[in-house]
């Protein structure tokens, strides 16, 4: 994979934008940036659909939890379903994180300069937040 | 608080039913059991509503995650929202667990016999599942 | 199981002392209390030895981590060992917690009064701390 | 690879070694890269000492847990100390991981080729193991 491909690939799942993120990554800017720097439409929408499928499944699990509470299902059985939903959220986070390391962090390393430090600090902070929950 | 009150309180949020849970706690049985053993209608529906409010908030967070993915929000910002949703699920689980210890486990201890062993083993396994995720 | 048995059993692994813990559980008081309320010497020292064995194994794992760092072992291999040590600590915590629910919390429920509320709140807070790490 | 060779690794705190990454990454190249990006032996031993200090502190906490068990300290107080030790282990893991991303993963990205995929998969698996505990 060439540097250029790495740059393109880096927006495969979610946009990479060190500056926007570092400085004042407002949703608008973030989206704009994501679109500006173009998605390989195919690989892109594939991954995006996969993420949305996962999240819709999790949304269904949360609605299932509401039914369980409404139907007075046994507490322990509800806790088992909560564990399953938490695990599904963690797996989604791990998938996103892996793509981020593979594309955004790698692209920053290739690009050189200080951006890699920002990206690594940012990713480490995100991992810490995942561990703390 | 008397044993009887504890027994009633024990179905305050979710039904306590050692046997149904131990043997074959099918949702039907579970609900039946929960209803049979009556809910102090007030405290009951209060807690139930509180649980449902929490879960609807979490469902909203999951839909928010879907929007973030659709709008190509920056990966790290999505991970932050995932951490928040996981934390909210864990808090819901802790709330359920505390009510379960306060009511079902305590009631089993007061009742005497082996049920307390089943209840404690069951609760410990649920805590282990929460820790492993 | 009678209240008295519950009371004795409750110091099987670690002393139960709601007031001492609630008020000012100083190590001295805690130990004194633990000893005053007597350990079934056998079951007691068995569990205690088991806990100490687990903790010595974990201490050995931590020393192993120091050797790995000194010998410049590959980062990922060190992280794998950290995960194993964390898991071992969590298992130790779960074992302690289960004994605590089985003995101290159950004894408080049998005893009646408000102590059960303190015990359950205390245990729930401990579970929350374990989840947050 | 010997300890000394590993000691000249590119990561400052822990070596990056291609053979672990498989594919075409030779340790020499990776280390060479590390040196290009200037980890003086000083920064290196500084980080190493910092890691060892952290681990000795954790070892002390584990010995403290053994004393608490021997002295029949209240179960809940032991659990609080277990949470502190787990948190300290997680912080150590996060520090190692951040250095690994900054040095080994970044070096693999700069080097190009498939090694970055191996490194990212490896790091993601390590993060998953940390999350699962």
UniProtKB/TrEMBL annotation, chains A, B, C, D:
Family annotation (CDD domains): CsoR-like_DUF156
Domain of life: Bacteria
Bias kind Basic and acidic residues: ranges: 33-50
Residue spans of biased composition, Low complexity class: 1-14
Region (Disordered): 1-50
Keyword vocabulary terms for this entry: Copper
PANTHER family found in the cross-reference section: COPPER-SENSING TRANSCRIPTIONAL REPRESSOR RICR, TRANSCRIPTIONAL REPRESSOR FRMR-RELATED
Protein family membership: Belongs to the CsoR family.
Entry protein name: Metal-sensitive transcriptional regulator
Organism field: Streptomyces blastmyceticus
Lineage: Bacteria, Bacillati, Actinomycetota, Actinomycetes, Kitasatosporales
